[in-house]
Specification:
Number of helices: 10
CATH superfamily of the largest domain: GAF domain
CATH class of the largest domain: Alpha Beta
Low-confidence stretches: 1-10
Helix content: 25-40%
Shape: elongated
Strand content: 25-35%
Number of domains: 2
Distance between the termini: 64 Å
């Protein structure tokens, strides 16, 4: 990462830069980064609006959260070239556009570059200048997301681009740290469900139905064909094919879809299916509790 030049400090002073740096690196909350940190950057570069979009490879979309009437609302953008944010996410190229409605300007950058005006049509807001910067990530296809700023009077300058490239690097570090902390906290919470009590089986499934964690009861359920370590990361219904296309599979998929607890009675087992919501209230796992009939 480069250092701020004297030219840069005409846009962002050193004190402003280190204030933002302190804010970026002092939070371990994704929501705070998406709101508080982004708002500070917006004010610093003089944009009317700004958004940090995170990349969700599984859903093939960009998502963020914005404050509306004091509530956090999630917004999503498809991961394709039909939006400026999507274009930068796919190409990893910086966009600095003076007029988003100027087709000739867009086509001079890329003949297929388009501006999706549907957000303006719905909100009544008029987008003009746009700056979109990729957020680097060394461990995930080189990209964590994109930062988008809208409507700076006179348009965004090259100095704005240089400053945002530096802040994008820092944002990448901060978001990675927050994600790591979130995963550690999530694992701590989930481990509270996992016991080696042979009276009760516990299995935690990811959304793709692979096994996130199990206890030793599941070894017995598999007829001792698989150890706990063998099962982790494997498809649940490949480990337990007898449950495939049964009421249990139907209910598991229904819980993932609808998000509420269900119970299934099998021949010798009662199975509780409990949705697990992470710290951002997203349902990304379910907990299966197998109990013998007494």
């Amino acid at each position: 990462m480069g250092h701020l030049s004297q030219k840069d400090t005409s846009i962002v002073s050193k004190s402003q830069f280190f204030d933002i740096l302190n804010t970026i690196l002092s939070t371990l909350s994704i929501d705070e980064i998406l709101t508080k940190v982004v708002e500070e950057i917006r004010k610093t570069i003089g944009a009317e609006r700004s958004t940090l979009y995170m990349l969700n490879y599984h859903c093939q979309e960009l998502f963020s959260k914005v404050l509306q009437a004091s509530e956090l609302v999630e917004i999503c953008v498809p991961l394709n070239k039909n939006s400026l944010a999507g274009y930068t996410a796919i190409t990893k190229k910086i966009l600095n556009i003076k007029d988003a409605y100027n087709v000739h300007e867009l086509q001079s950058i890329d003949p297929y570059l388009v501006f999706d005006s549907s957000w303006d049509d719905i909100s009544g807001y008029k987008t003009k200048s746009v700056l979109v910067i990729p957020i680097p990530n060394k461990s995930r296809n080189g990209l964590l997301g994109v930062f988008q700023a809208l409507n700076k009077e006179g348009g965004f300058t090259e100095e704005d681009v240089e400053v945002m490239e530096q802040l994008a690097f820092l944002l990448g570090i901060a978001v990675n740290n927050a994600i790591l902390y979130q995963k550690i906290e999530e694992e701590r919470i989930l481990r509270e469900y996992i016991m080696d009590d042979i009276e009760e089986g516990i299995c935690i499934l990811n959304v793709d139905l692979t096994i996130y964690s199990v206890n030793r009861f599941l070894e017995m359920m598999s007829g001792m064909r698989f150890s706990v370590s063998d099962m982790v990361g494997k498809d649940f219904f490949q480990i337990f094919p007898n449950f495939s296309e049964t009421e249990l599979e139907t209910k598991i998929r229904e819980v993932f879809s609808k998000g509420y607890k269900m119970t299934v009675n099998l021949l010798m087992l009662n199975v509780k299916i409990i949705p697990y919501h992470d710290v951002n209230n997203k349902l990304n796992k379910i907990i299966l509790i197998f109990e013998r009939f007494t």
